[in-house]
């Protein structure tokens, strides 16, 4: 495709990922969202459930019908819960749509692994093979012109962008990698439960799904691809009493006596020309608020001579770079556009 | 002036108002910020104190020199603490700059009132008379082509937009108006103090400056202008444990048996064609989050037959519609542009 | 009853009010909680749903059986949702239990009003007449030795303690009272819903149930009792992004030119000897955090000569003075004990 | 000493640690706080700066005078900033006072290490040798009857209680220990700064002092003592947008194929009879809120067969078990009393 105008549909518009796509695409110069879709609220205006969209989005929510979507759109974003995209994608592709899947259904190449970690029926193995994993700064050159992009998970995005340059350079021992990740609560979606009840989370900090999170095999799959041999990692997720933001604090044993300065240089080179990764100077580490509402991933380092380990801090906004923003970045790359189109906003601070 | 390109300078760039102007103007199609100015940090990059601007704003902070500003800019925004603009403005106008003052120095027409409520030396009386009060949806037609705009305060913006249509129509008794206002903490600026210390404000709700807030005479001055005779009001400010957002909950005795529906219609007509005021349908009231990060002011009503009073709820983002956003809206109006230029973003939710 | 040992049962132990009773009663010198009761979780340890009670409360939850309760307890606290206590109380009284109802079922003397505002079936009219409204500092002398105490609502407690001395003294005009109330989210209980979902409430401030809240008739009933003729009031509730705490900011026209100092003296006299109401000196207003976790109600004033109105600020912890704490205070008064027994803890700060 | 009545003084009463000591000691059956001391606010009532203490603590703050303290008290708690206690303690001991130091001045046995990590002048080496490190559940038997107790740091308390049983049993490799710690903001004290400014911390998550925190040598000193040979560890601190609570998430390679169940049993045995450590059953990990306001330290485990590592989660309230609470526990042990005296309160939830 080479055009300067794309019509897009969003399936799962009433979730936080979907509504963030609406927000971001509203200022994309080449994309028009022609259909917002929700299987549960078809026929109602989206502003009924999301009054912040009053007078901004006045059309009614559509149902999930591949042919009808194709009649309105060229590209469809899937911001659906796990297990839905696996079923929908064949018909969407069949209808001639480009698909960018934000759910996790097409990330793991192995159906068995998917089933083990997601406890859902996996997508067709051929489609899994066909889907391109859209970690934009690493695999961005693979998504041009493809039909099916699998958008990375929020934790994998923050973690992998923080690890890959060092892993690829052989500067850290992959066997020693430990990822301690923290996320704002919006990552859990809009479904109400005791686990996301205000009075339970406010003034509270908790770990969850320790050693059981479905992003573990996703991270390992990529690291294994980079290293060229199997990598396992320790990964822990925590819930922070805030709405947006992910920090991955990562630990690994350094090979070859590198310094903070070395890491800053290595990463600066690796990400040269990629606007959305910002490498912090020596002795500085990013905070989640510094990327809030934006598509940036900011990274900082601390090598400790005493222990021989490096601590890498990587932050993103889970709903932007960790979901809707990177999906749009992938659309840009797929279309051959500048990857920053529609995403050039400044983080909201404070 | 009639041009499609304006160079702007920001004095007070290292405060929250200044940094918000930088954020918003970064996506304005006709404005370039050519000078970011700070008397306290001249010569350093702004990203040093605000790392979220890393690689976005790499120039060094300028000092406060009217001639140097004029050499770089056509318009200057003053996002300075109270008492500074009063001194700066004469030289800035003299240098041939257009001035939009976000501080409160030019809001009150009476120097005596300013001195009484602000405890600072007032600006020159002629300049006070010259300054146009830029409450965009009410006085927007007065700012075209003027040299000095006084941007309204955050509380007055939320409160007056919620009151004026009813006051102007004679539907509520001005003598009975009570304004109970609540603000996020960013309104207090970036200066560290016990009163803005995290552990003191988190999980806390407090009132402050009861009957003493400097926005009281500003609100009364405008209401008096609308009504045509002196109005005094009761106004209370509270601090909410959140960063952004203002809600004014307002009470007044209804004249003439109006219903919720009547109020919705009255306000919808009053604000017809003004994109940034959204009137909620009967039985719905806006929350602060529904305008977060945007230039909207959302308003809702509840008439109580039992008491004969109406409760009006009005919300804004204090740093956008309550400061930087409305300042840009005023620039747009001053330049004869569409008032929404550079401000058409969707509120960030959640 | 005159004894120094009481066995207590708690119905609704798995709600926030119930679990707060458990916390507070754990340090009461004369009360032992012999049965924690939950209709929904009978037979399981309460620490399963509330791990903070691990090793503190290891017995299993009992079911709701009046005879079984009587076998274990002398007094029963009802911390149940609206509509339950109305049905339970006859059998509990019949079984010989003293009842302290924390739900709203026995607060309104008029069954019709209850039905109108609560949308539930009211309790028996004779029982409603029999129930003593336990606003401890005002009606505390009425609860001695009674069988059925109706514990006041959280908003009424904060509001009435802040209004009654002035209303009783004829210092403010009851017809002009406006109550702008704000509450932490725990007041909404533990039931998960979109309205209490973390990402929706964090960094947000909202009004709800404007002019429709069921605490309105409760407040009016008491004010009417104090004044001796019908009083209607305007009352608005807001949700603050915090867990605990209520502030009522109240407005009324002052009669007879009283000053801040006059109000401080009047209230200090009215509450003399009552440890749980603290009147702040002139020019000082309490914050919610200053009573956090404690049974205090703190009150401050600001008379405005310009408008002739007084602003009264009253704060409580909604789960303590607004629920479990005042219920225990009522038990103390009912038993003829010092009202502060088991409640003499310092607010948790910060 | 063997008595059932102790008079206590608190130096540094106007800090968060001091004011928490006041809160907790108010309900201690054997201790009376006879002097609250502040070098900066001598002669004023403490409730002026801490209105939550209104009518609770009405005496005036004393100055720092060892003889005057001795005239009023038997024991003195030092809740002072780093560097103060080192200077004060000789005179306090000389005056015949028992001293419990909550600052870090007496934790490190090596003056050189203290100087390196604290950047302050160390205490006298003999006094450092004399001071007993009061990690109550590990070294509690050493504090009986001593004159100088050094209360452990907040992070070391959470981390060491979570590590020591496994380290002592040889179940984890000390060389592989990585501690990822998170703290509420109250740990930073009451001093206002940009780093603790509400608008900067709210809706934000940050790391700080990576590999530079002064609690690193404290943790290593204890682990070295337990293991019997030098241990270095990787330790990172983060700031959570909440007031109270610490979580240490800790990683280490397991030796000998132990399971979650094994860890639960090992820790349950190690802490048998110690009320303030609660070991969670398999598959459960504590949240910070579950110990909020209390002296508990709760611990949970997850062994990952895939990586051969264990993840240990340990939580405390930084101001209680991490400061004032453990200091009182140490007083109890020093006096030969039950260690739980005055500390038997239930965590505040929610």
Automatic annotation (TrEMBL), chains A, B, C, D:
GO molecular function per UniProt: N-acetyl-gamma-glutamyl-phosphate reductase activity; NAD binding; NADP+ binding
A GO cellular component entry from the record: cytoplasm
Pfam family, one: Semialdhyde_dhC_1
Occurrences of domain Semialdehyde dehydrogenase NAD-binding (ranges): 7-146
Catalytic residues, chain numbering: 154
EC number: 1.2.1.38
Catalysed transformations (reactions): N-acetyl-L-glutamate 5-semialdehyde + phosphate + NADP(+) = N-acetyl-L-glutamyl 5-phosphate + NADPH + H(+)
A biological-process GO annotation: L-arginine biosynthetic process
UniProt keyword annotations, A-Z: Amino-acid biosynthesis, Arginine biosynthesis, Cytoplasm, NADP, Oxidoreductase
Main location per the UniProt record: cytoplasm
Subcellular location as annotated: Cytoplasm
Pathway: Amino-acid biosynthesis; L-arginine biosynthesis; N(2)-acetyl-L-ornithine from L-glutamate: step 3/4
HAMAP family per UniProt: ArgC_type1 (MF_00150)
Function summary: Catalyzes the NADPH-dependent reduction of N-acetyl-5-glutamyl phosphate to yield N-acetyl-L-glutamate 5-semialdehyde.
Family of the protein in this entry: Belongs to the NAGSA dehydrogenase family. Type 1 subfamily.
Name of this protein: N-acetyl-gamma-glutamyl-phosphate reductase
Gene: argC
